[in-house]
Structure formats: C-alpha cells, structure tokens
User: Fold these one by one.
Assistant:
Number 1:
Amino acid sequence: MSTPEPRRLVVRGCDVLEVPAEGECTVVSGKDIHITGNLITSIVPTGRPVPRAAEILDGTGLLATPGLVNGHTHSPMVLFRGAAEDVPVHDWFNKRVWPMESNLTAQDVHHGALLACAEMISSGVTTFVDHYFFPEQIAEAVASTGIRANIAPTFFSSQGPAALAETVAFAEHWHGGAGGRVTVSLGPHAPYTVDDADLTTLAVHARRLGIGLHLHASENLAQTESSMARRGITPIEVLERTGILDAGVMIAHGCGIIPQDYAMLADHADRVAVTSCPKVYLKHALWPLTPIRDLLDLGVTVAAGTDGAAGHNTLDVWEALRLVAMTQKLETRDAMFLSVSDTLRLAMRGGAAAARLPPGAGALEPGQLADIVLVDLSGLHHRPLHDPRAALVYGVQTNDVKSVVVDGRVLMRDRKLLTVDVPGLLAEIDARTGRLVDTSSGASVQFYDP
Ligand SMILES: [Zn+2]
C-alpha cells in the first residue's frame, strides 16, 4: 500500500511579515506561501505555477503573519468572563474564582475549552500555553478544533499523591498527541500551593519525560515578600532548589522577580521563559510589572499572554502584546523600549519558545510549522497605512483577522470557522452559566494566602 500524498496548501498573493531573530521586522509584497503537510516549504514571488492538487487560500490584499501564541492562559475560564470584576486579588481568588471553579464538571471544561479555542482561532492565535483542571477535556478540544496547545494539568499539593500521579499519566498519554499539536508541561500551580517535595518530584518527572513545567511564581511583589518573611528565600529560589529551573519552566507573570533572582535565572536562561499578562495587573492594581527589560538582558525568553478570561475578559493576544509594549514603555520611562519590531518578535518568536515549539518557530520561513494568520489592514482604522507593523501592534482589531492556518490546515476562511459548530457551542455555554457562578454552596478549590 502506498502512503497518501501529504496535504498541499498554497497561500496565494499575500504580503508577508518577516520576523527575524534580531533587527527590524519587514514586510515583503506579493508572495505565495507553499505548504506541504504541516510545514512551510517555500515562499516565492506570486504568479509561479502551483501544484494541481494544492488547496488555494487567497491572500490577495492581506498580510500574512506568524500565528500568535497565547503564552499563558487558563482556557476554560472563558466560562467566568466578567464574573469577578472590581475586586483586589485576594477577593478575586477567595470570594469569586476559586468558589466558582468548585462548580466545574468535565463537560463544562470541555465546552469552555471549545469556546476558548474558537475565540483564539478567530483572533489569530494558533498556539496557547494552558494550565487547568480536566486537561483531557482541553486536549480533546484542541484535537477537534485543529489549534495547537501546550497543556499543563493544574496540580495543588492539597489534592494528594494520587492527583500528582494523574498529572504525570496525562503527560505520558497526551504529549505529542493530536498529530503533535498537543504537547504537555507539568503544572504545579505555584510555590505557595505546592510543597517543595512535590515540586522536586514533578521536576524529576519532567526531566524523565523530556518535557517542561509551567507554573505561577513571583506573581506579584507581595508574594516575594511573603516568601522571604516565611522562608527566607524568594519563590525563584524555591524553583532553583527544587530543580524546577533546571528542568525548564514557563513562569507566569514574574512581576515579583527581584534583582537577587537574576543570577539564578541567567544560569538557566536557555530553559526558562516568563509570560507577562499586563491587563490583569492593571485591573488588579498590581505594581510593579514583569521586569521584561532585565529578563531580556539576562537572556530569558519573554512572551505575552492573556491569563484566564476571568481576569482578562478576552483571549485577544493583539491586545495583550499592545499592553505589554505600552506598559513597559511607561514602567521603564523609555518610549524607545519595546519598539514595534521588538514587540512583534517577543509575541511571535518569544511566544513560540515559551510554548516549547521547535527552534526558530514564530517566523514564516521554509522548514517552519505552517501556522499562519492573514490580516486585513484595509479598514478605515488603518488608513493611510504608513507602517503595517505599527498597525499590527497598535491598531489591529480581532475582526481584521480574515483567515487562519494551523499545522497546514485552514481553520478559518474569510472569518468563517471551519472546525467549530458555533451556534451549537453557544447553546451549550448558555445552558451552563447560571450554575457556574452560583457560589452559595460555600465550596472552594483552594484558599489564597501566599
Ligand atoms: Zn494564571
């Protein structure tokens, strides 16, 4: 029996955003992007012959960009969008989010993850770095929608050793699943909810499996100060002592990372990433922000993320990267910091590295994964178009995303989602909302006291 021919796709007649490893991003006009299977094979001037069997995606008048990466989220938390507003972080966890999460069933998480995948595909996100309960349900949503994800099953030490074993079993079963679109990281929630022995055990498993870890650490300065007062060491030092840094880790937020952490992070810079999600810091009135300039100087990978939609309201990574640029300019009092090119590179190449995609991912180049977004910059809010790169960072709206390709497959064409039954999904979501926000039982998944 002969093996079937790999799928061929040509994105025809588009402009292409080039995102080099350093220097200015550029836009080149009039290209065809040839894709075989899940990889970009060539990018050539448009008008040359196209293989007869190839599917054509018309890119005329559109800008092809690398797919966005949501560097840290909790995808099913779209179910709690707008249900925890105008509260400080303690109340956000203890009075709203952790009580609401005790209502979740596996089916709730499945439908929440589907909604999140649909929202992300429709806004140009091709990969997300997730951390949540019922990870099998998320993996199945990723498998069916065609998006790409690195999924960490959330673990608290209070759940006990059987739950730890389950998270390891999830990794053993799902890492490399859905044709390689699902990868797994181990997901201790944070150093304040997972004890050192469990952190050490999870780091050993991660090294054994050749996967990374994903956790919250030094989320804000109060957590760092509390760790110093209780234990005499910072949360980053906890990660160092327990082998988490050595195994390789994606740290969410890191706003409480302080200069005494820098040498430890520099020593592990080839395997540590930090994702900044500024909208949630702004909403919770948390300061300082992720020290992105210092982290980049240390050689640490930095990405942009939304965190869960219970805090961020959307899973819009254009908004997230825009807020990263704007808040960092203010934080550093330097309008030159995080230029348009550096911001696109952080979100695209940095995001891909944070998601542990293959080296060089996050750029449209031959040999790279065919994760491509076609953006329409012809709207009134972009005219006249002096600089399409600036339009992407500071002006683009999610509806400007017209078509999306993940792993060589078209998932949205001219704003129509091809892998999600949107009306059916919304009916499932609407049927669940009242029960999910009812906190009258008094139950909660955890208590926030870092
Ligand atoms: Zn988070």
Number 2:
Amino acid sequence: MRIGILGTGTLATALAEGWARAGHEVAVGGRSQAKTRNLADRLGRGVRAVEPREAVRDRDAVLLAVSSDAVEDMLGLADAPDGSLEGTPLIDPTNSVEHGVGVLLTERGESTAERIAGLAPGAHVVKAFHLFAAQQWVRGPGGDEPPVTVAMCGDDPAALGVVGELVRAVGGAPAVLGSLDRARQLEEVAGFVIGLAFAGVDPRSAVPHVPSPNTPSRSPSASV
Ligand SMILES: NC(=O)c1ccc[n+]([C@@H]2O[C@H](COP(=O)([O-])OP(=O)(O)OC[C@H]3O[C@@H](n4cnc5c(N)ncnc54)[C@H](OP(=O)(O)O)[C@@H]3O)[C@@H](O)[C@H]2O)c1
C-alpha cells in the first residue's frame, strides 16, 4: 500500500519502520523538513520525506501521528480542510490524556476522532493504534506472544478493512468496536490502559484478545 504519515515523532517513526519492513511504501510529512529528512534517512528503504500536503496525495491510508492539540495545525498543512483527504482512510491514533495518569482532557461527550472528521471533510476516519506504546509496532508479526488487539472504530467498512490490514502488517489483531460515534469510548479506554501501564500492569492484559482462527469461540468475532 501507499501510506502517508503526518508527523515525525515516536509513533510516526515506529509505524513507518513497521510498515516499510512489511513492504509498504511510506511518505512522511512533518512540519519540520529537517526532522522529516532525518527520519527518512534513518529508516532508509521504503520511506520518503515529503511536505505534509504531498504525504496525503494518492495514498491508500494516512496516519495522523501528532499531539492531540496539533491535529488542526497539521491537517491545515495537509490542506485537509480543502478536501485533500476526501475518500482516504485517515487513522487517528491520538490520545488527549494527562501524561502518567491517563485522565481524558477532551470535553464531556466529545471525541478527538470526531473532531478530526470535522476538520478533514470527506476523510474516512478510523480510530486505531492509540492503546499501545509505539515500540510494540517495531517488533513486527510473529514471535511467541499472541498478537495484541487493536480496538478500532470508524464509519466506512472499506477503510476499516484497509486499517485492519495495516494492523496485521505490524503484528496486531484488528477488532472493530463499532462506528465513529464509539470513538469517545475508545479514547476513554486509552486512559484506563495508560493508567494501568504506568502502575506497572502489562497493558496487553487490559484489552481482550482476538481468538485465533483455529480457536473455537462462543461469541461473535469483531475482527475484520
Ligand atoms: N508514542 C507512543 O507510544 C504513542 C502510542 C499511542 C498513541 N500515541 C499518540 O500518537 C500521537 C503522536 O505521539 P508521539 O509519541 O509520536 O508524539 P511525539 O513524539 O511528541 O511527536 C509529536 C509530533 O507532533 C508534531 N507536532 C507538534 N505540534 C505540532 C503542530 N502545532 N503542528 C504540526 N505538527 C506538530 C511534532 O512535530 P515537531 O517534532 O516538529 O515538534 C511531532 O512530529 C499523540 O497523539 C500520542 O498521544 C503515541
């Protein structure tokens, strides 16, 4: 797939590395061209440094990997308010939480994912990749541990399918909670998981596992 990443920080770097390793083509666009070039040079093959507006052009999916208070600025740099992301799956991994304790900072009843959908008309926003530390995605698929569950939500089935594939590419198991109006609930879960992780609990134990295809299950599967 052709993936765009907006942002050059910890999560952008980890997922760029994981997706490039899985054979996807990654274009990274940060607000600082120096940091963007540095990231692309470090990761090498499969990762290009571009301007934000270039990072969202003709992409199969775009990851918005910036601090939650920067989503409006970054979407502006990518011309999202003018419809540059129309029809594109837009992954929102942001956490608007107080560092360490995980208390949600968004106003009662609001979600960052729905705010992003309002700032990027026509984009198919999918909340995903917000529950686990970035390092999780550098390990890649395989290994002895069962894959971590990437709980996600969104309104467009095709976009959920694309993001599900990108979750599997870095060793996760996708699970759809529902439509984008469930995003607030998923954002609350991040506060819970981050709070426990800071208290020393393995964050993977806080999220239910997706049964492997060979494991009999008595409940309907939410995996995609
Ligand atoms: N790191 C994790 O383990 C992890 C896990 C799950 C979810 N998340 C979420 O993913 C998002 C990114 O996290 P991160 O750890 O990668 O953060 P980070 O390392 O601090 O990187 C933040 C990125 O946002 C950019 N940025 C900040 N203000 C901006 C603005 N006004 N306009 C444009 N770009 C701006 C930064 O650019 P500059 O470098 O130029 O300042 C940088 O590229 C956050 O919402 C976080 O909650 C992170």
Number 3:
Amino acid sequence: MNAVNIKDEIFWVGVNDYQTILFEGMWPIDQEGVSYNAYVINDEKVAIIDTVKSIKADEYIEKIKSIIGDKMVDYLIVNHMEPDHSSGITELLAEYPDMQIVGNKKTFPIMNNFYKICENLHEVCDGDTLCLGKHTLQFFMTPMVHWPESMVTYDITDKVLFSMDVFGSFKAPVGSIFDGDNDLAAFEEPTRRYYACIVGKVAGQALKALNKLGGIEIETICPSHGLIWRDNPKHILDMYVKMSAKETDPGVVIAYGSMYGCTQKAAEALAIALKSEGVGEVKLYDVAKTDISFIISDIWKYKGLFLGAPSYYGQIFPKMANLLYKLSEIRVDNHKVGFFGNYSWSGGADKNFNAFIECTKADTIDEILMIQGTPDEADVIKLKALAKKMAEAIN
Ligand SMILES: Cc1cc2nc3c(=O)[nH]c(=O)nc-3n(C[C@H](O)[C@H](O)[C@H](O)COP(=O)(O)O)c2cc1C
Ligand SMILES: [Fe+2]
Ligand SMILES: [Fe+2]
C-alpha cells in the first residue's frame, strides 16, 4: 500500500507486517499480520508521528518521501517507545539528522538506552501544544497504557487523535486502512485479543485514559495498530469502554489441559451439561493446542470460566500453569469461575488452583472438583451440579 491521505495535510505512512510470527515474542500474528501505523502531517513544519518496526523502515521512509518530497522533517513525535513503533528511529534519523524528537521526560531515558539517542530532544508535558502552521498538536500523558512513557497526540485543528496502542488491533487491514471500507465484525476478535493480551494488565489505566480524553472532540482516531476510525469512531470507543470496564456477555469458556483424556472427559461433560442448562455460548479449549491469546480473548468476552487440569509432579499441568500466570496478571475479577482437577496419586493441580484463587480473589462458584482418573457416574453427577451452578451464576 502507498501512503494514504487521511484528512487535509495528514497522511498514513504505516506498514503491514506479515513477517513477524510472534508479536512481543509470544502472541501469534502469523495468520493475519499486524500493522504499525505512523503518520505525517505535511504542514509548514513537517511532523511525523511514530516510526515502525525497523524491519520495515525502508518502506516507511519511502512513503514519507512520497508525501514530503525534498522537504526536511521538523519533528518526530514519539508517542510510545515500544520497539514495534520506535525501532525505525535510527533509520529515520539517518535520513533527517536535524529533526527534533518530541517526547516526555520518561521517553528519553528509554530512547537513550535503546538507541543511544540524546540530542535534539524536545520535552513536552501533559496538555502542552506544538504549532506546525495550520495544525496545532496537543499532548496527553497516558502512563502505563501501554508503557510508563506512553502518550497520545491530538490534532486540535482537524480533531484527529493519534491514540498510540489505545484502540489498536491485531490483523493488518488489507486494501484500505479505513473502518468504513472494512468488515468490522472481522476485526472484533483481533481487537479484543490485542486488548486482552497487550493492554489487559493495564485495563484500569486504559479506562482512566479514556475518561481523560472524554472531554475532547474526536472526529478521527488514528491508532498505532489496525484500522483508522474515520467513519465510525464511536464503534471502537464503545468497544474499548466495554472492554476496559470488563463488561462480559453471558457464556462460558472451558479451558482444560489433558495428557490422557481424563480431564478432557470432564471438560466435555461440563460442556454438555452447560448446554442442557441453557447456556448459549460454550467455548471449549485445550490449553496445549490453542495459543492462550485466543483463549484469553474469549475469557475477556464471556462471564463464565471453567479451568481444568491434571496433576503433574505435585503441581499442575504446565500448560495450564502458563494460562493461570497470565490470568493472575490480568485478573478475572468480573467472572464466575469453576475449577476441576484430575489425579492418580496424591494430587497437585488443586494446590495451584488454590494459590490462583487466593491471589486473584476469583469469584468461585464452588470448591475445586478433584476427580481421580476417568470420571465415573458419581463424578458426572458432580460435574452436572457444577455446570448448573455456573449457569445460575452467569444469569
Ligand atoms: C508426568 C506426569 C506427572 C504426574 N504427576 C502427578 C502428581 O503429581 N500427582 C498425581 O496425583 N498424579 C500425577 N500424575 C497422574 C495424572 O495426573 C493422572 O493420571 C490424571 O488422571 C491424568 O489426567 P489426564 O488423562 O487428563 O491427563 C502424573 C502423570 C504424569 C504423566
Ligand atoms: Fe505497546
Ligand atoms: Fe504497539
């Protein structure tokens, strides 16, 4: 894709990345890619908002030149130092060595550490403005959404918010970067998966940031990943408000691990019982087969959660431990949670589930149901009772 005009002197100069397999080294993006959005404001003074991941710097600089020709870049605004947006800075500086780098007091130490850049720095504070000629930009600090130095940039003139990772999404837009040209339903899951895995831990700060921005009039939202919201910014605003407030839909995710099928049998019995209790959406995931990002995305969506795993050398099945670790970080405090474990000797999985409950203060529907080996008729009755409690709890 070439550079794209967004409004007046504002252009998209971002890139799509289909090369990276794991975002942040762990979240699969090999199927649909991701975009790193960057922007140029070609005013009397030329400002660039963010760079892109360095593997794509050539394409990014080519796009900038297609807009500004031989003009120099006056400002590079660094909304966020995470290298998916900042690592192209070395290449950009090589091209425009005199540009001023705009950031806040937490931006520059990270920049110096990553790239040994400590000159031509222009420090801004919350609410500060920068005039480019026709356009005036205003900066708002949004600490910890996503990193300590995170900030957003607002174009007062055109009412455009350059929102950094906020309102971002996995899935590289194909053919058009604008919301109005894309199937928004197809972006719902990638947006939620991005939110749950990347921003989920700082959902509270995200909500604060949204409230802070509530006072400004926003016509267009230009995030660092995913679609540009020009036709219907309310769509993504509403979705983010809902996700930040941890509002859930009725439905249950059953995430389980199983070496030899005993825990799996219990999980399936729960699914059947939930359905006969009238639960509309029941999602069954094997934690060893489905990447946890997809499971966490659905957990963020649905109110009910069952976690099941066998014991493993006095502890829990390691792939479940991995999910518990991430869930304890993002918390499941608006959920109803049930647990089922399995063992042959003296257990172990229950220990980790108990520690998880203690640490997260999870709203449990019942005690942990520990089953020895293959679930028998008595176990199935207990599983049915557990499913009934869950169905009641989420309604
Ligand atoms: C490597 C390994 C370690 C295990 N560690 C424990 C354990 O610490 N405590 C226990 O009671 N059972 C332990 N077991 C037995 C399983 O937890 C038990 O057989 C369970 O029913 C398996 O459930 P699954 O069929 O869902 O994998 C272990 C099994 C394996 C293969
Ligand atoms: Fe980030
Ligand atoms: Fe990002």
